[in-house]
Amino acid sequence: WWDHVLPAPKDPITSVTEAFLSDPSPLKLNLGVGAYRDDKGEPVTLECVRRAAEKISGCQFLESTKAAAKSKFVEDSVKLAYGNDFNVVREGRFAGVPALSGTGACRLFAQFQRRFYPDSRMFIPMPSWSNHHDIWRDSQVCTSTYHYYDPDTKGLQFQALMNDIKNAPDCSFFLLHPCAHNPTGVDPNYEQWKEVSHIFKIKNHFPFFDMAYQGIASGDLERDAIAIRVFLEDGHLLGCAQSFSKNMGLYGHRVGCVSIVSRDEKQATAIKSQLQQIVRAMYSSSPVHGPLLVSTILNDADLKALWEEEVKVMVDRLIRMRITLRRTLEELNSFASWEHITKQVGMFYFSGLSPKEVDRLQRDFHIYMTNDGRISMAGVTSSNVDYLANAIHEVTKV
Ligand code: LMR
Questions:
Q1: 398: number of Cβ within 10 Å
Q2: Can you give the pLDDT at residue 64?
Q3: Residue in 276, 283, 244 with CA at minimum distance from that of residue 69
Q4: If you measure from the C-alpha of residue 33 to the centroid of ligand 1, how many angstroms do you get, rounded to a whole number?
Q5: 348 in contact with ligand 1, CB cutoff 6 A
């Protein structure tokens, strides 16, 4: 038995954490995984989460179906993504289920896509979060890529992106990052989203938004949902994966939601029952504690306001670190241009460092990042930013 099983290739993100953990050097820095840290490099439990946990501390979690039936979690999360006032929410024209964070939400959608459009493919931006490719592959849905990032300008390749959308067969599925694109930190602006939405309408493409970072791009939860709002305003049916890992710091709780905007309530009911059936056969039902924490925060005006402030604090720190890193590199009279550090947004700085430079940073300086040169700004602090800038300078100077 099992003689034919060979070791799986290492995951490009989690393997960075593994390598970091096995390095005994006191100098080591983990800039791999996108998980928020404070300025001391410590993981953060948000105060709104602490208070919500106290509020629900007497709840019984033994019967998950009963608890899930009572919870308004799905409605609360879609309101956050789609906006309170959108017709979709008022008219109940959406089907959604709780998911195991963003990955679980994407996976449920991919299974759903496979079940009802078995011959379809998913168009994924180039580059994208590496796991997108694995999720759709394991769901037996073919993938293609579309142009997104221009390594020369370190910005958006908008014309090429539009051409790919136009040239894709009508009624294609596209995966879009609505904010804080992972790994590039490069987002279309409002006008560009309008254009993208317009062409999607003409081509009758289906947009699937993976929103893992709502709030983490601009510090404003509403503003970060602008892409989805544009598509809704234009009357699209769409899908959306949401994660509360980054914006509520609920990484280990694995809280997320997948939802699909539907034509009418009848269609929503049918879609929801299919999503529930996929869940049932895979892991029966989601844990209830995390979704209850989220609902408690979203339904309490004080806790929600506190959450919004805490999101802003996280984003302000990421921005401060971007500014400091850029300034420090510029003061070193580095040959390269570093303006994209502060132009890009969200958790990541897509540095353009080559795999060789990334290797050298790891070998000589114990600085860990993904092989594509993505730096998690969450791992950068006031105490290590100088060390990081000097190391980057060292490996990039000519
Ligand atoms: C990342 O891109 O680092 C995060 O989304 C975490 C993960 O699981 O990959």
A1: 5
A2: 60
A3: 276
A4: 5
A5: no
